[in-house]
Amino acid sequence: MLFLAGRPAPKGWSRIGPVGPNAGCLAYIDPHQLDMLSKNLRDGMAGTAPGAPIVLIS
Question: Is the pTM here over 0.70, yes or no?
Answer without folding.
Answer: no
